[in-house]
Input
Amino acid sequence: MTRTLLPFSVTLLLTACGGGSEAPSEAPPAPAPAAAPTASGYEEQDAVADAGSIAGTVSYAGDKTDETLSITQDTEVCAHDHPERPAGALLVAEGKLENAIVYLDGVKSGKKWDYDTVNIDNQACAFVPRVSIGRKGGNVVAKNSDPVTHNTNMTLIQGSKTIWNGSLKKDNESSPKKLKKSGMVSVRCDLHDWMKGALFVADSPYAVASGADGSFSLSDVPPGDYTLKAWHEVLGESEAAVTVEAGGAITHDIAFE
Output
């Protein structure tokens, strides 16, 4: 348990030979606020001293291409007159890779962290967003915006721990489900086997998904040595050692092969 000492002052009255007293002594400065531990063990700070940043671009120049799906089930909703459609797993534009999860491994303290619930929707027989980032100790909610029933199955890959597995009719949603363990979660629909997605449950707020231009940015990073990791559902994992100097801004690009 973290204890915070409250500031106090003590007044000393000193009587001289002729009477009277001295003015009260000045109160000591209040101690800095203690970091607040989260459910993941990560400690939030009101302000990160000498914070730096990491930014870069994720790229892919290999030969793999996005899979083409053949939609034969619930075609009026899922196919939209286009029974052949891209899977959306490998999104590359001009060599820049979208939806790679980029994160710092093992950060113990730093900037504040929101605990908003992660919402994963079933839209046009696809998960939106396809790749999400949640927080250990936070929640996830599955929704269904389609006029057909979906069965959303969320399973922690390491250990095959089921977070939630249930059917949803149109405009229904699950109750919030606690994200108790960190790691990668597979998201799939058991009724439409082409529907796939991913949820990364992070230990700290230093995790982002690369944008359509492949860019990523991690701000308010405490100075130190770190392992910068990247994960992609088709291309696998990558990691590199990085050093953030006090107040420094570094650029680190990530290339999948």
